[in-house]
Fold each of these.
Amino acid sequence: MLKDKTAIVTGSTSGIGLGIAKALAASGARVMLNGLGDPAEIEAIRAGLARSAGVEVGFQEADMRNSGEIAALVTETARRWGGVDILVNNAGIQHVAPVEDFPEERWDAIIAVNLSSAFHAIKHALPLMRQNNWGRIINIASAHGLVASAQKAAYVAAKHGIVGLTKVVALETAQSGITCNAISPGWVLTPLVQRQIDALAANEGLAAQAAKQRLLQEKQPSGEFATPEEIGALAVFLCSPAANQMRGSNLSIDGGWTAQ
Ligand code: NAD
């Protein structure tokens, strides 16, 4: 379905972004991976995905805190493959602390990576999408874009912000073949969440499995994690013609978290 389309997925060396990159590649899209990490491990991911999906897969190590590097990610992808059709703004980081103790450097980094990077990437990718009058912009928000949790000031602010940005871009592209939507996962067992499970286990003296159950019990009525594969399948659906008139939507995939 996505043969001859070019996708950029930010933060796709791990977790949800990698799940989305795999799903887009399995649907035939060329994929530009991005993210931080060990170069040899990233190259193994890139080459493995290219081989298994039979599509071209690239990697560019743009730091999502840096607007110049984000611009280069978009322009380099377009230079290599002739355009950018699908942009998934997924890169994200977390820090947990009460607001009065929240380190300013962590606030700035979370707003930069989880919110401002999406603005910069959209700003540069949109003119390329307009050239073909087709595009898909998918912003990975969170249940924390709809509701809050204590000790997550920067993350919740950034995720509420990206839901707003999604709506604005959807309106500005409403009369075109370009759509912009958000996906809002609940708990997905990725390195970002594993760190929170480890902290919970250490703070409360819990075994790993008990800490996982506690995390789910607090928020996610299904008692089960959503998976990167499920988020990837939803992203592919948003790229399909069936989603042509989905514009500015925020799709929850959260085991009932925000239904409460
Ligand atoms: P993860 O830690 O597994 O992956 C994060 C990715 O972002 C990695 O590829 C990492 O290299 C990249 N990244 C981090 N900082 C970067 C930077 N400065 N520049 C470029 N890349 C950078 O996390 P994840 O859980 O897969 O999270 C992916 C997205 O999903 C985030 O936006 C997160 O907020 C969101 N999300 C996650 C969950 C969850 O439960 N895991 C729930 C809701 C939303």
Note: Strands lie at 6-9, 30-34, 57-60, 86-89, 135-140, 178-185, 250-253.
Amino acid sequence: MCGIIGYTGSENVRDVLLDALELLEYRGYDSAGIAVKDQETKQTAVYKCAGRVSDLRAICGSETTAAGCGIGHTRWATHGGVNDRNAHPHQVGKVTLVHNGIIENYRELIADYDLAGELQSETDSEVVAALLNHFYEGNPKEALKKTVSKLRGTFALVVLFADQGDVIYSTRNVSPIVATLCDEGAMLASDLTALCRFTNRYFVVPEYHILELHSDKLVLSDFDGNIVEPEYLTADWELNSAGKNGYPFYMEKEIMEQPEAIENTIANRIKGGLPDFSADNVPDTLFTDCERITIIACGTAMHAGLVAQALVKSILHMHIDVEMASEFMYSDPVIDEKTLVIAVSQSGETIDTLEAVKYAKRRGAKCLSIINVKGSSIARESDYVLYTNAGPEIAVASTKAYTTQLAVFYLIVAKMAWSRGIFTTEETQSFVRELQRTPEVMKQVLEHRRDIHLVAKRVLAAKDLFMIGRGLDYSILLEGSLKLKEVSYIHSEAYASGELKHGPIALITQDTPVIAAVTQEKLMSKELSNIKEVKSRGADVVVFIKETIAGSLEGEYEVFELPNMQDEFMVMPASVALQLLAYYVSSDKGFDVDKPRNLAKVVTVE
Ligand code: F6R
């Protein structure tokens, strides 16, 4: 959480920092701030406030003189409320600092080093600034090393020292920092999105190293002072793909990008009509030697895991668990060297998922991760990685990352079914062909988005809402319901239809709309009965139904017909429809769709 940027170079630093913070705002958006070194006075000026980057832009105005060096931050509050004082950067003595992470022992540090008198805010971050200032005697690296040796917790620190010219210093533990040197100067950020505008070459700053940014060079060294060569990566994201491209919100843009994203995810992993992970260096033995599978993930990524679980059970008949990463380590999971652990994460930085991967590896499991952001912490921690190639996902609510995660899971299931002799070669090819139809089928849903907009209007006024379905439909609705609640603030619950009568049906009234999904032919007749049950209790029911079975639906319902795919693949068109529903409800209510309250895109605190 929290977005960080640092820049030293030839461009107008204020503009570089503010533009980057706008791109990073998805990491946290309750306050923002920048510090710039004035080229004439050599003073470091801090501008910060509670609110959005647009508020910060207003207070920076045009009075800030253009300068060549500065740092910036967007905050997602952990320690201390949302106010101007708690916003970063924090300035103590000669030190101006921004921080991402959590310092667990900040109280001890205040007492041990008698820092209370230096602090203006309630944040753990300002304690780090004060400690750094305490140790600083003109040698930034020594001060950083001493400070870091006292810290317990996670941190990405980016620092300006008053007497060190236009040089930026940084070090980190767990919380990520990426950096680059390009024609315009040197820069670092909490993630690649902020660098994309300048270059697609970047490296991940290793933990417990110190990075110095000069306008014309970068110096990376370990804590013993040895110079380390940065290991550059190339992002295959287009340089400007982080823009809105004419859409009012990133969420809409990202929903619309899904056909292309799926294409990018699967195209290079299909050879001769069969799944092939050789370009990813994932050996076939990973899939043939395991006896059980455990998927670990959070939120939407975990919901992708639930779809995979249904497929693995019905096609591979294997034991598979899906674990919320935040609960995993504390639940005595059954993990051993015969377990294939699959970690799923868009950002590759979710701390619970990262810690769960480390734990599973300590227990001897092999870990394959499905990740969107190249070189991210979970990717680096895993034995093998399958990147989803969805491009930057900026809206806080995940859309294209989810469906590309599903696409990878379809390929994994096909690979396992084939390599374990469950599918013949022809059956595998036929399964893969159906997956290849997905982009076309998704386009059909997107073309009918106006109809979904009309459906959205029916639930706008709801305070509470239920989503019901059976089998795979239930898994899809868990995600559809999460999407709706996070962007529209409507309380929505997904229920397996058969469970309704065991309690929740008591909540069904004419004021609780019900959204039903009916895409699984073998479960259709039971599902249709459940729909009638809620209808007869007064609920306004909207049905998302596979078009080939829509004729079986009797009665007056608002219906959206989903284009036909084999049952196992109906997740794809249905998910797009539910994403659009959530999007339209939120935008019609006038909410900031891309930045729902209290949320942040990258969850780096436990
Ligand atoms: C919801 C959403 C979150 C994320 C979750 C995991 O729309 O985006 O539930 O899915 O925070 O994030 P990643 O995939 O980055 O590990």
Note: Residues 298-301, 345-347, 350, 353, 397-398, 482, 486, 603 surround fructose -6-phosphate (CB under 6 Å).
